[in-house]
UniProtKB/TrEMBL annotation:
<keyword id="KW-0238">DNA-binding</keyword>
<dbReference type="GO" id="GO:0003677">
    <property type="term" value="F:DNA binding"/>
</dbReference>
<keyword id="KW-0802">TPR repeat</keyword>
<keyword id="KW-0963">Cytoplasm</keyword>
<keyword id="KW-0812">Transmembrane</keyword>
<dbReference type="InterPro" id="IPR000792">
    <property type="entry name" value="Tscrpt_reg_LuxR_C"/>
</dbReference>
<dbReference type="GO" id="GO:0006355">
    <property type="term" value="P:regulation of DNA-templated transcription"/>
</dbReference>
<keyword id="KW-0677">Repeat</keyword>
<feature type="domain" description="HTH luxR-type">
    <location>
        <begin position="510"/>
        <end position="567"/>
    </location>
</feature>
<keyword id="KW-1133">Transmembrane helix</keyword>
<dbReference type="Pfam" id="PF13424">
    <property type="entry name" value="TPR_12"/>
</dbReference>
<keyword id="KW-0732">Signal</keyword>
<comment type="similarity">
    <text>Belongs to the Rap family.</text>
</comment>
<dbReference type="InterPro" id="IPR036388">
    <property type="entry name" value="WH-like_DNA-bd_sf"/>
</dbReference>
<dbReference type="InterPro" id="IPR016032">
    <property type="entry name" value="Sig_transdc_resp-reg_C-effctor"/>
</dbReference>
<protein>
    <submittedName>
        <fullName>DNA-binding CsgD family transcriptional regulator</fullName>
    </submittedName>
</protein>
<feature type="signal peptide">
    <location>
        <begin position="1"/>
        <end position="23"/>
    </location>
</feature>
Length: 567
């Protein structure tokens, strides 16, 4: 009676504690900020809910869902659904057909993508993880790859299962014997090992070492095996200490370091026996037999074989049985020929059975690998098309920017050329005006000199009675230089900068004009009077008038019509 009363009191106490914990969680969720609800619920699940029984766990998560609906939090409601699926997955992970029970929970979350990107990615990953443990292996791999791409796009820092994702992909490719791709994913998982338990990190480093061992890179394999063993010893996970020790022993055997291999293999046998892993103990024992045979210690090999016999038959694996009979054949081939023949027959028998099993496994792996590669190819194709479209858009933007830049440079250059042309035109106009003014000044000087000579009626001949006065007049005449051939070239250059088409139009429309007539028209264009033209050309005003009349008569037009055509 006393025992029953104590038991009931203890049970009542535990129920009160559980109810108190649920009440505390509910109160916290009811008053917490919206953006912290999902993170807090995950922490409570990882530290408390996942370790409770299924009734308590689902009751707690149902209460979380009620609070989510009261607070109108879609993310929290989907978090409760997802955690039910995760709880179911954790409890049934080792049961091939029960693990699918968690998939409906994940499908519910996948149908509500808008609630939370993180939960959507998590649900996609765990659905793939669950399917990968069933006959729908390739479909599961597809979900895992999609989860990886989505997590990569959103940033792995917001995805709590990055380690598991990379580790699962690495183990998948290891099962395909695709060691390079396996290493690609397994090495990516290393930075996230702090997010998982130590035994999972040991598993990771052990698989990495196995990849390098299968690739023949024994030094690198040894480094990772040693690291895995150190982690296993630190975490005191005895089963993994045995597994890694056995793998190190096998590595040393392949490197022909037989004596160094024995202690590791012996440790694997001891730990496998202690943890009741019969198949592992049988395999490690057979590896020890191979070592003793390599050392030519047949008696020791015979003892190990004798001890391994019950383990081998208890394991019941065809490959292990084939290995067992092969070692017996090697041991007895030089001792007992008839017995050796029986052993080799048994070896071939079990080897054939193991090969048939392996053919089925290999065929399934090849099928899964082909489907996996097909899906990966589709993903790469989609990524390639996405990159192409992005490059195309960027190229269009760059081309448009280049066109705008080129147009701006062209406009800028045109403006600069126009400013330069206007500046040159202004300078040319100034020079032509200066030149014209000079012509007019010279014409006035010459006219003044002539008037003075006419007024005085002084003959400009040798022996004149007033030599000083004659000398002064001569100086004035010399200053009034007419438009010589050399001056005409300078004048024509300046004139053409302002009136660019004048001379070409004359040549086109009036090809029979003389040089004198062309010069007369040019002087008319700049507005010189008859006397100024006469002075510039060094002829009399009457000659200018006669030349003009003769010119316009020859052409059959007036001066105004001539100049209008020259505009």
């Amino acid at each position: 009676m006393k025992f029953c009363a104590a038991f009931l009191l203890s049970l009542l106490f535990l129920l009160c504690c559980a109810n108190g914990a649920r009440a505390g969680t509910a109160d916290t969720l009811q008053h917490m900020d919206q953006d912290r609800l999902v993170g807090y619920t995950f922490r409570v699940f990882n530290t408390e809910i996942q370790y409770t029984d299924s009734v308590t766990a689902f009751r707690t998560l149902d209460r979380v869902a009620e609070i989510a609906r009261d607070r109108n939090s879609c993310a929290l409601e989907m978090c409760a659904v997802f955690l039910k699926g995760k709880y179911c997955f954790i409890r049934n992970a080792g049961r091939k057909f029960k693990v699918v029970d968690c998939i409906p929970f994940f499908d519910t979350v996948l149908a509500k993508e808008h609630c939370s990107d993180m939960l959507y990615t998590e649900a996609m990953f765990f659905k793939g993880y669950a399917l990968s443990r069933t006959a729908e292996y390739s479909k599961g791999f597809e979900y895992i790859i999609r989860a990886k791409e989505k997590a990569k796009a959103e940033g792995f820092e917001g995805f709590p299962n990055t380690f598991e994702l990379y580790a699962l992909l690495g183990n998948t490719f290891y099962s395909f014997s695709d060691y390079e791709n396996s290493l690609t994913y397994l090495l990516e998982a290393i930075p996230y090992q702090s997010t998982v338990e130590m035994r999972e990190a040991v598993d990771l480093y052990n698989t990495i070492a196995l990849c390098y061992r299968q690739m023949g890179k024994y030094d690198t394999a040894g480094y990772y095996f040693k690291h895995a063993l150190d982690l296993a010893n630190t975490a005191h996970v005895s089963d993994w200490i045995g597994i890694v020790s056995g793998n190190i022993g096998e590595l040393l055997y392949r490197q022909k370091q037989y004596r160094e291999a024995l202690p590791y293999l012996q440790r694997d046998v001891q730990i496998s026996m202690a943890t009741q892993q019969t198949a592992s103990a049988a395999k490690a024992s057979l590896s020890m037999v191979r070592v003793y045979l390599a050392l030519e210690q047949q008696d020791s090999a015979a003892v190990i074989l004798q001890n391994a016999r019950p383990l081998v038959f208890q394991a019941g694996e065809n490959k292990v049985l084939a290995d067992y009979y092969q070692n017996l054949f090697k041991l007895y081939k030089d001792r007992d020929g008839k017995l050796a023949i029986r052993y080799v027959d048994s070896f071939h028998y079990f080897q054939d059975l193991a090969a048939r099993e392996m053919d089925v496994v290999v065929a399934d792996r090849i099928k899964s690998k082909l489907e996996t590669e097909k899906y990966q190819s589709n993903i790469k194709l989609l990524e390639s098309e996405k990159r192409w479209h992005q490059t195309e858009r960027k190229s269009v933007v760059v081309i448009l920017l280049l066109i705008v830049l080129v147009c701006w440079l062209i406009v800028r250059r045109i403006r600069q050329e126009r400013r330069h042309a206007r500046k040159e035109l202004a300078n040319a106009c100034l020079l032509l005006d200066t030149y014209t003014a000079s012509l007019k000044q010279k014409s006035r000087l010459l006219e003044e000199a002539r008037l003075e000579l006419d007024t005085r009626s002084i003959p400009l001949v040798a022996g004149d009675d007033n030599p000083e006065q004659n000398e002064l007049v001569l100086q004035k005449l010399q200053q009034a230089t007419i438009l010589t051939e050399e001056n005409w070239k300078d004048f024509k250059r300046l004139f053409s900068q302002i009136h660019t088409q004048f001379f070409s139009h004359l040549e086109k429309h009036f090809p029979n004009l003389t040089n004198a007539e062309i010069r007369l028209l040019a002087l008319s264009k700049i507005g010189l009077s008859t006397n100024e033209k006469a002075s510039a050309l060094g002829i009399s005003p009457d000659s200018v008038r006669k030349t003009k009349l003769r010119l316009y008569k020859k052409l059959g037009i007036t001066e105004e019509e001539m100049l209008r055509r020259m505009m």
